[in-house]
Backbone:
């Protein structure tokens, strides 16, 4: 299966993408993690993106798209993948279409979460780019650039909305049941 996990910062999509990827036996590909890895290793790419990550801005599309293109060409991604944090811009959507075809995705899992809950979660997480200013900027950038992209995937009938609030296991189960073919009506799956 080829899936996208989309949601505002702190929605828990990274945690869930990794758990669902394990269950499905596909790689979890997080562009944010890849950038953080480069930054911590001090690679050329890492040096270019470090200050961008710290500001909470988006890395330029050319860089992000090329990194992603190389990653999904690797053998482990042949049978499918979960993309977490890509695509985030219109150009990235077009690039992904070019790489896997406009009908290449199975579903786009969208996390629904209350914004106040998100700020609390992010401050508690304490990652290097989780200062209050950066968080606020990441939200703004998500709302302006990424949220509007969902209309494209809505139009293709791919969006599966999942309530992201609850115990980690509970949310994982919600996602897995929302992805089951017999349960594929595109509706929001709420907590019981
Ligand atoms: P979060 O969802 O909490 O913002 P991520 O790990 O997904 O965390 O992303 C962290 C940072 O990595 C982003 O703020 C951005 O700077 C960069 N980044 C990740 N994915 C992309 C992307 N697809 N396009 C541009 N920048 C990205």
Residues:
């Amino acid at each position: 299966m080829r899936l996208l996990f989309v949601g505002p910062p702190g929605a828990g999509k990274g945690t869930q993408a990794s758990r669902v990827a394990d269950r499905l036996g596909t790689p979890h590909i997080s562009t944010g993690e890849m950038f953080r890895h480069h930054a911590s290793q001090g690679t050329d790419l890492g040096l270019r993106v470090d200050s961008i990550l710290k500001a909470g801005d988006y890395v330029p599309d050319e860089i992000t798209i090329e990194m992603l293109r190389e990653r999904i060409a690797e053998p482990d991604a042949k049978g499918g993948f979960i993309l977490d944090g890509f695509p985030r811009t219109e150009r990235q959507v077009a690039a992904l279409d070019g790489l896997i075809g406009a009908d290449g995705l199975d579903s786009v899992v969208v996390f629904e979460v209350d914004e106040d809950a998100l700020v609390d979660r992010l401050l508690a997480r304490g990652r290097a780019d989780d200062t209050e200013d950066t968080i606020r900027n990441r939200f703004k950038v998500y709302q302006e650039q990424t949220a509007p992209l969902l209309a494209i995937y809505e139009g293709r009938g791919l969006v599966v909305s999942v309530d992201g609030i609850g115990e980690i296991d509970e949310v994982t189960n919600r996602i897995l049941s929302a992805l089951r073919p017999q349960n594929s009506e595109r509706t929001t799956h709420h907590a019981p």
